[in-house]
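Re: that chain you flagged

S.,

Sorry for the slow reply, it's been a week of failed gels. I finally had a moment to sit down with the sequence you sent. For the record, here it is as I used it:
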Amino acid sequence: MGFSKPDLDLARSAIASCLREISSPYNDGYTSAYCKQDLYMLKSWLEEEYARLPKFLDEDKWEQERLINILQKR
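Prediction finished late last night. Pasting the structure tokens below so you have them in one place:
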């Protein structure tokens, strides 16, 4: 039995749902703020955990690809 890469689609879907709730004009500020706080806490946790991961040789290329994608969207 080998490695099975986790499917992050469920996490992306939950985050997208939170983003929609934050942007919805039908929500009051309390609901939007609560959702945004959840995203902030998730982002903070992910940054802390990511900082503990080992470095890989291709990581500089990942950032370059991300920057190229950002610039192409403009």
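What I noticed first: The mean pLDDT is 93.

Talk soon,
D.
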